[in-house]
Structures are given as C-alpha cells and as structure tokens.
Amino acid sequence: MRVLAAMSGGVDSAVAAARAKDAGHDVTGVHLALARNPQTFRTGARGCCTLEDSRDARRAADVIGIPFYVWDMAEEFHDNVVDDFVNEYAAGRTPNPCLRCNEKIKFEAVLDRAVALGFDAVVTGHHARLGADGLLRRSVDIAKDQSYVLAVLTRAQLDRAVFPLGDSTKEQVRAEAAARDLAVADKPDSHDICFISDGDTRGFLESKLGSAPGDIVDGRTGETLGSHNGAYGFTIGQRKGLDLRVPAADGRPRYVLSITPVSNTVTVGPREDLEVDVVTADRPVWHSSADIADCEVQLRAHGEVVSAAVSLADGVLTARLKSPARGVAAGQAIVAYRPDADGDIVLGSATITAGSRAAANA
C-alpha cells in the first residue's frame, strides 16, 4: 500500500512509520504544523507541534529513509479543536481535545487530503489495534491504550487507518527506537493539552472568555458558599481550587456537582451526590450489529470501566450502569467495549450529555 505516516516528532509515530516501511508499504512521512505560533522548544513534556518537534520528525524520516513533508493545518486545528474546546467549556461541558483532533484533523482533514493525493491509508503511532476482522481493539499495553480517543472514528475511517504499535508496550517501542538509532528514543511523551503548553487551562480559558464572576452554591441547601471568576474554570467532580468561604457542617470536602452557564452558577456537594447510574449521550458512532449490548463502558480517558447495558434509540445512547460512577461530565466520551479473548473490542462511542440516578428518574 501507499501510506502516509503522520509523524509528530515523538517516538511512537517514528517507530510506527519505520514498521510500516518494514512491512513493505510505500511510506511518506508528514508532520502536521498545528500551532499558529509554534515555539522553538518544548517545556519538558508539555506542548507539541513545536519547531523542535518538526525537526525531530524530519530527522527520524531521514534515518528511516522515507520522503518527508510538513503540512500547515493550523487553521483547521484552531477552528475544529481549539475553538471547540473553548466553546464547550463556555457551555458548561468538559471536552476532550485529543478525541476531537483525531476525529476532525488526523482522520478527516488529513485522511481526505491523503486519499485525494493517491494514498491508501494513514499510519499513526496510536497505541491501539485493528484486528483481522477490522474491529478496533485496546492496545496490549493497557496503561498506554488510546482506543478511547479513537472510538469516535467511523467504519470508513478505520478502514483506511494503520496502527502498527498496538501489539507492543511503550518500553518495547522505546527499545526499538534506540536499536534503530532514532534520536527520539528517550524523548518525553507529550501530556496534558498540547495547545496549552504551560498547563494552565483555567488561565487559557480566561484569556479567551474573560472574567465572569458568579456564585458557588450548595446543591442541597442552595446556600451561597463562595464565588468564582468563571464557571468555565470548573469540571464535574473537581475538588481542588473551590475556595469556599463557608465550610461544610460535617467537615467533609465538597465537589463540583453541576455547572450552569445561564446563571453562571457552580453547584457543589458531598462526594456521594456525584454518583450516577444512568448516562445519556448523543452523536453515537456504533460498530456493533446489535443496538442493545451488555458491555463495559469507559467514561473518561484512562478512567475505570463499568459494566453496563447500552441501548440506542433515535440517535441517543443510554447506558444503565451496573454500579454507580462518579465524576461523569457532559462533553466527555462514553466508549463501549466487549471483552474478547483477543483483546477488548470497541463497540462504539458517543458524547455524554448527562448523568443521573435511576431512582431519581423513576
């Protein structure tokens, strides 16, 4: 096959490109320039898409022996990922920008351009597997598994995707990179949000949305417990940074239960009030032949899995959890998995709209 290898400048994408070449594919490397104002150097493991990353990707392509290009996709990234991130927080939701980047950039904009140029598929360094049956599965390295952020991909997109690293652990990938004399073998993994290199998400959002003071209230009594400079600075389940003026009568900590942008109110309460056992979600991407499935669901990146009964009706996914979950935030993805002898299979995903208690719904 003639394949396009997306090379971020990290160790995973470099080894993925090398493996694709070893497999006999005609490989071309491409680095996606996603930042409008790329910095020359990273700050440790924070940030990506810098000039340093572009140079690292080019050097890796030279060592592997494949052609290499840089594609400027800063505007597409800003419109589809950064703006979406800001707008979602402004609406009281908690988005996952990595999921949106995979959906809108790597496997929509990039894949569309690649196909138009005559490529058959796009290769990435994601830790996930595509079985012989074409189904998306978890990586063998559960700690690095990225199937959660890939579950939004459609069947057509998965048919043109290649994930060479799904059968390897991160340690094996680094060892292979060193054996191949790739300079990125020991390069730190990028973490947090790539376009917020200092890690200050609240500061980034305030720079975009401005200060918007409001109240923090008790979910049970309605009492005002404190104030905030912007409801967008909070997420469901958050405990730190609440700065409450009135301590709880029982002395226990309080957690964010809900965010209401219309009234600019953040509601808090005890940990048990976070529990939900019914999750609804929209924008489903479903790969199973059945509309109803007893399965396991993951409600946030690297979160624990919960057994659930999942159903689809009129474009809405409903998951009835076998045991309560906490910290379920609108805007995150719910991903359904079916345990399998060859590794957990992704059944589908959807974007969470709400979590509730079945008893409260009765």
Characterization of the model:
One of its GO terms (cellular component) is cytoplasm. The protein has 362 residues and is of the alpha/beta class. The protein has 3 domains: 2-186, HUPs (Rossmann fold); 212-270, SH3 type barrels, CATH 2.30.30; 275-361, Elongation Factor Tu (Ef-tu), domain 3. The chain has helices at 11-22, 51-64, 74-90, 97-116, 147-150, 155-158, 170-179, 201-209, 358-361, and strands at 2-6, 26-33, 68-72, 121-123, 128-130, 136-138, 161-162, 214-218, 224-228, 255-260, 265-269, 276-286, 292-298, 305-313, 316-325, 333-338, 345-356. The strands form 4 sheets. Strands 12-15-14-13-16-17 form a 6-stranded antiparallel barrel. The protein has a 5-stranded parallel beta sheet with strand order 3-2-1-4-7, with helices on both faces. Strand 5 (128-130) and strand 6 form a beta hairpin. The longest helix is centred in the N-terminal third of the chain and has 20 residues, at 97-116. The model has no long low-confidence stretch (mean pLDDT 91).
Fill in the keyword field for this structure.
Rossmann fold, SH3 type barrels, Elongation Factor Tu (Ef-tu), domain 3, 3 domains, six-stranded antiparallel β-barrel, globular
